[in-house]
Amino acid sequence: MKRKILPVGKLPLNILKRFLKKYSILDKSIIVGPDIGLDAAVIEFGNKYLLAKTDPITFVSEDIGLYTININANDIAVMGGLPRWFLAAVLMPEGKASEKMAEEIFSQLSNACKKQNISFCGGHTEITSGIDRPIVIGQMLGEVAKDKLVTARGAKVDDAIILTKGIAIEATSIMVREKEQELAKKFGMAFVNRCKNFIRCPGIGILKDSHIAAKFAKIHAMHDPTEGGISTGLHELAIASKAGIVMEKDKVPVFSECQRLCSYFGIDPLGAIASGALLIAVSERDSKKVISGLKKNGIKASIIGRIVDRKQGVKIRENGKLKSLRIFERDEITKIF
Question: What CATH number did the domain enclosing 200 receive?
């Protein structure tokens, strides 16, 4: 039998689900273990819950510290928690690693932690063969009050699905960082610099988004759409909540810079890595309060769909017609590499 080679990116959801079911080891202290759409583990921790998450940064090397802290902190935030402690495994490429490279990574990690009041408290560093760029694998620990825990399992039929900011913030920054010279010739350096800065403005962090949303209503579920974009993120939310979803394509905000880049590279923005946006499931009656509260705090937000019965599946309404929403097992951003 010919061996099937898997594509770059996350493991396909069906394979991952099978492995998690077969190989996870959970004791009685595990409140939430690994599953599709669940962003962090939840562990009994005295009068609070400990939240634990690990995530690597593999697409970029420039500003890798900023990426690492925010991407890992995001998965604590969507559980309703506060990121507190961070550890990093820093891998640098053989033949390219230098003291300067190492210090830049350490400095970036430290500065990003300081901005979110996170303790940078441990990890591992080495020069590694077989890689062509630095890779940082982060582990973020956080905490949440037991009555404030939110998981992606909590979405309910008829909930509104709110999206903050727009798509695809991280993909926009990655594209110009990887193809800077080509895109500067095509669109100009001012455009390139603006897109590179997307990681800071509008930003790839969602800690503020999640905490503000929780002040205005009882949030049923949150999820952080990353690899595979908003489309795959909605599938993960549906799987976790055992529900269906209808997304309204014309309601999904796509940054104009993102749309220009995606059109140029032949990329579907719905399948491009979307860190910086937050999916929020909340009752219809509370959705206006949440959106208003976010906007008052400078965060754009809009309803992009609804939670429906599981039997209806995960759909997208486009030009008045419903069709199945695609799962992007290979992130669209990989087309540029």
Answer: 3.90.650.10
- Please identify which residue in the block is written with the tokens 């998690």: 20
221-268 pLDDT, tens digit per residue, is 999 999 999 999 999 999 999 999 999 999 999 999 999 999 999 999
Helix (H) or strand (E) holding 262: helix 256-265
Considering the domain architecture, whether residues 213 and 311 belong to the same structural domain is answered as: yes
DSSP 263-277: HHHT--GGGS--BTB
What's the CA gap between 316 and 327, in Å, rounded?
12
- Residue 250 sits in which domain range? 152-336
CA atoms within 13 A on the CB side of 39: 31
User: Where among 131, 148, 165 does a domain terminate?
Assistant: 148
Residue among 210, 234, 200, 232 at smallest CA distance from 290: 210
Q: What are the pLDDT digits (tens) for 147-162? A: 999 999 999 999 999 9
Judge whether 6 lies within some domain. Answer: no
Residue 185 above 60 pLDDT?
Answer: yes
User: Rounded CA gap, 2 and 90, in Å?
Assistant: 35
Number of domains observed in the structure of the chain: 2
Does the bond joining 41 to the residue before it have cis omega, within 30 degrees of 0?
no
* pTM assigned to the model: 0.92
Q: Is residue 68 part of a domain?
A: yes
Contacts 24+ apart (CB under 8 A), 173-181: 173/60, 173/197, 173/198, 173/199, 173/204, 174/59, 174/60, 174/273, 174/333, 175/261, 175/265, 175/333, 175/336, 176/261, 177/60, 177/62, 178/59, 178/60, 178/336, 178/337, 179/336
Tokens linked to 308: 């429906």
